[in-house]
């Protein structure tokens, strides 16, 4: 479901010049549904009463991957919760999977909220890393199986995405460029591995030379942004070697394609401040369905709240 929205129906959202503009308009309308974004990687932005509750994209791990790959919950616990959510659904509509996981004691409510928030912000960040496409709003779409509730304000999501892009760019690794390379350990990594953190050692083990930052995120159950920050730190310590993704033609990605140093240390802090911005998020012209100049947000100074959520979601 991509392309030009149906502007002749009463339920069609007003014309907007970009996805962020559309999300702000839908927030004012307290819209519940989805925004389907085409392109690479593309994805689905879920909204409830205009708040963003989930961002599903093959460009970033979903909540399921973050929970299972990180070992927060086991495969059997997830399967039990899925079965319970399906059997408890009225009228064939699946029950909230997150609520079932909490009720079964598989994970605490606060920890699940942290992981869901990390997935929302990381998914929005991942949507900026590829080629933009068109968008379409869908009111009748089913809600996400597991989501952040009540959700994130669209403006806050835009600001945080811009902050992440700005941070990586200032550190000399623009995220689109970093997303396009494959990672392998450098020759110096072997002698330095004993002095690295366990998190960085995990990356060295997983970095086979065929994996991109996205692939590493899926393999380790971490956010793409969190992995990119680690790569920048490790690169500063001469632990990594980067190769263009085209240097290994025909080698498939090892991460699933369908979703179910330099920087300041990550620290606790308040929610990000609202700052205007200009980074595109697959922005498109409403009536033509073609990419348009739009903004998810402009570069902002770093804030700590969602660095904290990324740290907790590792």
**Per the principal axes of the C-alpha atoms, what is the gross shape?**
globular
Tally of DSSP helical segments? 12
Average pLDDT value?
77
First and last CA, distance? 33 Å
**What are the secondary-structure elements, in order, as H or E?**
HEEEHHHHEHHEHHHHEH
Rg is: 19 Å
What composes the largest sheet?
Answer: 4 strands, antiparallel
Low-confidence stretches: 1-12, 247-310
Based on secondary structure, the structural category is alpha+beta
Q: What strand line-up does the widest sheet have?
A: 3-2-1-4
Q: Estimate the helix proportion, in percent.
A: 25-40%
Q: How would you summarize the topology of this molecule?
A:
Blueprint: H1 19-28, E1 33-39, E2 43-48, E3 51-56, H2 63-69, H3 75-87, H4 97-103, H5 109-127, E4 132-138, H6 154-170, H7 175-179, E5 181-185, H8 189-192, H9 198-206, H10 213-220, H11 224-236, E6 240-244, H12 305-312
Antiparallel strand pairs: 1-2, 1-4, 2-3, 5-6
Helix pairs in contact: 5-6, 5-12, 10-11
């Amino acid at each position: 479901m991509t392309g030009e929205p149906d502007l002749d129906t009463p339920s069609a959202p007003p014309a907007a010049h970009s996805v962020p503009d559309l999300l702000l308009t839908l927030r004012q309308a307290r819209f519940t549904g989805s925004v389907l974004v085409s392109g690479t990687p593309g994805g689905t932005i879920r909204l409830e009463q205009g708040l963003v509750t989930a961002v599903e994209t093959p460009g970033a791990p979903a909540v399921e991957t973050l929970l299972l790959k990180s070992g927060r919950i086991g495969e059997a616990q997830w399967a039990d919760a899925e079965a319970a959510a399906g059997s408890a659904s009225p009228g064939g509509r699946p029950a909230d999977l997150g609520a079932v996981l909490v009720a079964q004691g598989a994970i605490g409510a606060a920890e699940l909220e942290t992981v869901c928030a990390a997935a929302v912000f990381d998914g929005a960040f991942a949507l900026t890393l590829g080629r933009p496409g068109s968008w379409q709003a869908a009111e009748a779409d089913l809600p996400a199986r597991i989501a952040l509730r009540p959700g994130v304000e669209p403006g806050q999501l835009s600001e945080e995405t811009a902050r992440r892009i700005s941070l990586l760019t200032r550190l000399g690794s623009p995220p689109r460029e970093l997303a396009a390379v494959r990672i392998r350990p450098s020759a110096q990594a072997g002698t330095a591995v004993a002095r690295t953190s366990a998190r960085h050692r995990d990356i060295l083990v997983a970095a086979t030379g065929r994996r991109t930052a996205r692939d590493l995120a899926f393999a380790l159950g971490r956010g793409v942004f969190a992995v990119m920050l680690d790569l920048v730190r490790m690169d500063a310590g001469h632990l990594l070697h980067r190769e263009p993704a085209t240097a290994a033609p025909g080698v498939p990605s090892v991460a699933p394609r369908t979703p179910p140093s330099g920087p300041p240390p990550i620290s606790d802090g308040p929610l990000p401040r609202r700052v205007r911005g200009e980074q595109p998020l697959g922005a498109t012209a409403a009536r033509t369905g073609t990419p348009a100049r739009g903004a998810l947000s402009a570069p902002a100074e770093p804030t700590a709240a969602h660095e904290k959520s990324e740290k907790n979601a590792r």
